[in-house]
Amino acid sequence: MATSEHKTFGKPDEVREFPKGRVEIMKIGGSTVGRAIFEPGWRWSTSVQPIAKTKSCEAPHFQYHVSGVIRVKMDDGQEFDCRAGDVSLLSPGHDAWVVGSEPAVIVDFQGMLDYAKNK
């Protein structure tokens, strides 16, 4: 028989904080889901890269963008904005940053298992 689960980001299993942002982690149904809150001025290469210790973000992401605007620049030079209501699928090898004065909130269904995790 299948098991049903219900959780809320109001009580995440784990919170990972870094300059100008945080990720709230929930484990549910054998999967890890993360809600990222990025404040204006957040940029992966300055806020998370010192933790990840990689040239660019190597986490794959499958995300729903709740609010704000994130600009993504792939290592191959492709660049685009993700806005509230968008869904994005990002392969490893990118940088990203908040555009504007509104915090960006993103729910990620794929890439948060080790994101900004001190090892």
Structure description:
The protein is mainly beta. The protein has one domain (14-108): Sandwich (Jelly Rolls), CATH 2.60.120. Helix content is 7%, strand content 45%. The strands form two sheets. The protein has a six-stranded antiparallel beta sheet with strand order 1-2-3-9-4-7, with no helix packed on it. The protein has a three-stranded antiparallel beta sheet with strand order 6-5-8, with no helix packed on it. A hairpin with a 2-residue loop joins strand 2 and strand 3.
Any descriptors?
Jelly Rolls; 6-stranded antiparallel sheet; 3-stranded antiparallel sheet; 9 strands; 7% helix; 45% strand; globular
The helical percent reads under 10%
Question: Mind telling me the CATH class?
Answer: Mainly Beta
Please state the overall shape, judged from the principal axes of the Cα atoms. Answer: globular
Which range does the strand content fall in?
over 45%
Number of helices: 2
Q: Please tell me the total number of domains.
A: 1
Strand order of the largest sheet: 1-2-3-9-4-7
Number of strands: 9
pLDDT averaged over residues: 95
Order of helices and strands: EEEHHEEEEEE
pLDDT < 50 runs, ≥5 residues:
none
Oligomer kind: single chain
In CATH, the topology is named Jelly Rolls
CATH architecture: Sandwich
Fourth-tier CATH superfamily name: Jelly Rolls
Using the CA coordinates, give the radius of gyration.
14 Å
Structural class: mainly beta
Largest sheet, described in full? 6 strands, antiparallel
